[in-house]
Amino acid sequence: MSPFSSVNVAETLERTAAEVLELMCFAMVDESSGEERPALEAEARVAFRGPTTGELRIRAYGDVIGELAEGMVADDELAQAECLDAWGEVGNVLCGGVLPVLHPDGIYDLAAPAVATEASETQLTAVGACEIEVDGGVVSVELFVAGVEKTP
Amino acid sequence: MALNVLVVDDSLMMRRMVCRALKSGGMPIDDIAQAANGKEAQDSILEGRTFDLVCLDLNMPVMGGLDLLRWLRTTEPHQTLPVIVVSSEGNVDRIEEVKSLNAAMIRKPFTPEQLVRAFLEAVA
């Protein structure tokens, strides 16, 4: 059973992600159309420890992170490293926004974001996911926790 | 009077975002210095640089924002240095400690208007 089972995790992820992308990056967000995703551009993983151990993972598909980073600082000549730094910070802010909603009494420590341009694997169990469309592509958000048995 | 501001955050892009929000908000700023963690900020202060306001993230490597804030509040002459904590921290206990250390707090993601309002209240 998920420690976050008392709330709708996917709905919380989607609502918080939309808020973060709109406020931080001035992005236009929309519900996923369900069409096939473009190629993976980057992912950011933010591990957390507390009453529950886990990880929030956001992935950008298409041509997304440059647009979002540009929105953050109003600069259209950003280096790839700056775009990846921005993507990590989006993940950090998103994780920091999601956990208090899912577990209001929990005290969590967040690790620094791990950003990569290739998909990583995890042994943790997914407890919720969402997908939203932004300018240039798609953003997916997934929440994983440790020690939760997968439901059959 | 133009003010000297120190922005402390481990994300370069977040530091740029804070700087941009303050400048575009028309704040009376002379200079904005940056530090990537609490230790860099502490070193800068110990070297004698003076600041009128600190914008401070909490969750950073090497030395976190709460440790820097506790140090400021116990070290002459920085006890009354205005500090705005700009963080995604959602834990009630930590937020209460920030407030008990006489710092303002705004949550990430923030709007430029929220930061400007906090700036004006902090330096009033």
CA-CA gap between termini of chain A: 12 Å
State the total count of DSSP E strands of chain A: 7
| Oligomeric nature of the chains | heterodimer
Low-confidence stretches of chain A are none
Helical residue percent of chain B?
40-55%
Characterization of this structure:
The complex is a heterodimer of chains A (152) and B (124). Helix content of chain A is 32%, strand content 30%. Chain A is globular. Chain A has helices at 9-25, 65-73, 80-102; strands at 30-31, 40-49, 54-62, 109-110, 114-116, 125-134, 137-145. In chain A, helix 1 packs across helix 3 and helix 2 (65-73) crosses helix 3. With 152 residues, chain A is of the alpha+beta class. The longest helix of chain A has 23 residues, at 80-102. In chain A, strands 1, 2, 3, 4, 5, 6 and 7 form a 7-stranded antiparallel beta sheet that branches. Chain B is α/β, with parallel strands linked by helices and 124 residues long. Chain B contains 5 helices and 5 strands. A 5-stranded parallel beta sheet of chain B has the order 2-1-3-4-5, with helices on both faces. In chain B, strand 3, helix 3 and strand 4 form a beta-alpha-beta unit. The radius of gyration of chain B is 13 Å and the shape is globular. In chain B, 44% of the residues are buried. At the A-B interface, helix 1, helix 2, helix 3 and strand 4 of A face helix 1 and helix 4 of B.
